[in-house]
Specification:
By secondary structure, the chain is mainly alpha-helical. 64% of the residues lie in helices and 0% in strands. The chain is built from 15 helices and no strands.
């Protein structure tokens, strides 16, 4: 067993409670899919408009998860030709909406690489498609038949959460159906779900280091992204926690994952980076790196999807 040395500033009980809250928010049964493209656009815009001026990270996080879920619910419908390539949708909403679209693509065609690629092209706006493949990886991890999967399926049967009955097949064969750059995005999403499925942060990282070396960095970036997102209330304390890690590949990847979360959040809710007060020198470095990345995204007009560097 690979040893991972790290002291998490977030207590185990608090981290678990936050993960459960996140999953419940992102799989709410009381949300219904829009019945038309116009209805979907209106619903998503109204959801975002209600909170776009809020500086409460908790409110912002719940809104992002709701938009993700709204997008998933509408775009997985087979009776409506939904798309995110709609000029009425603000570009500030598109990254998180495309994460939902990636989930919808799997739910529409199951774990069939070629068909998933076709669905992503059909559902997405140019420039944002890579965000879809990240959440494909989250579903690949979710549908691994382990204790977490069985518990989730039970909750779905009891009507507590929304979860379709899908079979993922051979994950190696599935990954081989995508080019290397997309494989890394899928691994990032897999890592994001690993954080939810693991006992704690250290366990998630240990699982990541047991995978093929070609995927490890992306898995760790995904874990760091999810960890920072879920524990947004302690963002000042959690930034830079990866510096404790002994493995250099793990340490650098964790930093990159946390930077990506900051950039992702800043795109949807500008102003976060100016309000954050770092608790350490390393946290300050990550915030500065995020500022530089966000400035480049603004010049491009489109954010990069979970970049490796």
């Amino acid at each position: 067993m690979i040893k991972v040395s790290l002291r998490d500033p977030v207590s185990w009980s608090k981290a678990w409670a936050r993960r459960i809250l996140t999953l419940r928010t992102a799989t709410r049964k009381d949300l219904s899919a829009a019945d038309s493209q116009s209805g979907f656009v209106q619903h998503v815009i109204e959801t975002w408009e209600r909170t776009r001026s809020s500086q409460d990270l908790g409110v912002q996080a719940r809104t992002l998860w709701e938009i993700e879920h709204q997008s998933e619910l509408f775009l997985k419908r087979v009776d409506v030709a939904g798309t995110l390539d709609d000029p009425r949708l603000s570009r500030a909403l598109l990254p998180i909406a495309h994460v939902g679209a990636g989930m919808a693509s799997v739910e529409r065609v199951e774990f069939r690489p070629e068909m998933i690629r076709q669905e992503v092209i059909r559902l997405s706006a140019p420039g944002y498609r890579r965000f879809c493949f990240e959440s494909v990886g989250a579903f690949l991890a979710l549908y691994k038949k382990d204790a977490f999967f069985l518990a989730s399926r039970l909750q779905a049967r009891l009507g507590m959460v929304a979860m379709m009955d899908l079979s993922r097949g051979d994950p190696d064969r599935f990954m081989a159906g995508f080019p290397p750059s997309i494989q890394q995005l899928i691994a990032h999403g897999y890592g994001r779900m690993l954080y939810f499925k693991s006992f704690d942060l250290k366990t998630a990282l240990r699982h990541a280091l047991e995978f093929s070396r070609s995927y490890r960095k992306s898995l760790v970036r995904g874990i760091a992204f999810a960890y920072s997102f879920v524990n947004h209330a302690d963002m000042g304390r959690t930034l830079g926690v990866g510096k404790q890690l002994e493995q250099s590949e793990c340490r650098d990847a964790f930093d990159r994952g946390q930077t990506n979360l900051l950039v992702f959040w800043e795109w949807h809710y500008p102003g976060l980076l100016d309000r954050l007060t770092p608790d350490s020198r390393q946290a300050g470095k990550l915030i500065e790196a995020a500022r530089r990345e966000h400035s480049r995204n603004l010049l491009r007009g489109v954010p990069r999807a979970f970049p490796e560097h």
